[in-house]
């Protein structure tokens, strides 16, 4: 049984937003590891956006391999996949839904459209399965 | 005989197995053997009989796109890894 919602610490939430802002004007991306049963992510693994684009992201294939194997070798779970939207809401786009291949992970999105937004305002969590997205509870604490 | 390491996201298609031993002198032949052993994985990662473009293939941690693709040769000490790409974007 996997968790219905995603939990991250305030520090992790700040780390995600900091990465997203550092990558402006491009989208940022990375992976979160932790425990999929409880839904708590405890570490962020930033990755290079191979597209170097404000509109799309691809986790660099070399980073993807390195991070996925490290998480697996450490006995942890891939809990969430993070990326930023620089000018649009933290809602999966048609591209996000079409290209989502990890139904067991949460998709955590950050919107940078409001530069003053707090992490709780900027971040939203989703499940994307078979091209359909549904928002899920995100607990920062 | 080479080894294919199955990442967690695909293990539901290999009866939970973390590695599968396969025969074949190339990545393509090794994948054919993998799919013969685990047909459910074929359905997951191929389209019209070809490996889907969203699947990254690595041999010994190197992306085969920078070698000879699916014609990359493999031997007894080689490990092949399949990994679905992570991608998306606001547009």
Describe the secondary structure blueprint for this structure.
The complex is a heterodimer of chains A (141) and B (91).
Chain A: E1 6-8, H1 10-22, E2 29-35, E3 40-47, E4 56-58, H2 61-73, E5 77-85, H3 94-98, E6 106-111, H4 119-122, E7 123-129, E8 132-136, E9 138-140
Parallel strand pairs in A: 1-9, 5-6
Antiparallel strand pairs in A: 2-3, 2-5, 6-7, 7-8
Chain B: E1 2-5, E2 19-22, H1 27-37, H2 39-45, E3 46-47, E4 50-51, E5 55-59, E6 62-63, E7 79-84, E8 87-89
Parallel strand pairs in B: 1-7
Antiparallel strand pairs in B: 1-2, 3-4, 5-6, 5-7
Helix pairs in contact in B: 1-2
Structural overview:
The complex is a heterodimer of chains A (141) and B (91). With 141 residues, chain A is α/β, with parallel strands linked by helices. Chain A has one domain: Cytidine Deaminase, domain 2 (3-Layer(aba) Sandwich), CATH 3.40.140.10. In chain A, 25% of the residues lie in helices and 36% in strands. Chain A has helices at 10-22, 61-73, 94-98, 119-122, and strands at residues 6-8, 29-35, 40-47, 56-58, 77-85, 106-111, 123-129, 132-136, 138-140. Chain A has a six-stranded mixed sheet with strand order 3-2-5-6-7-8, sandwiched between helices. The model of chain A has no long low-confidence stretch (mean pLDDT 96). Chain B is built from two helices and eight strands. The model of chain B has no long low-confidence stretch (mean pLDDT 95). Chain B is 20% helix and 31% strand. The termini of chain B are far apart. The radius of gyration of chain B is 13 Å and the shape is globular. Chain B has one domain (2-84): Roll (Ubiquitin-like (UB roll)), CATH 3.10.20. By secondary structure, chain B is α+β, with helices and mostly antiparallel strands. Chains A and B meet through strand 4, helix 2 and strand 5 of A and strand 7 and strand 8 of B.
State the gist of this model:
The complex is a heterodimer of chains A (141) and B (91). Chain A is an alpha/beta fold. Chain A contains four helices and nine strands; from the N terminus they run E-H-E-E-E-H-E-H-E-H-E-E-E.
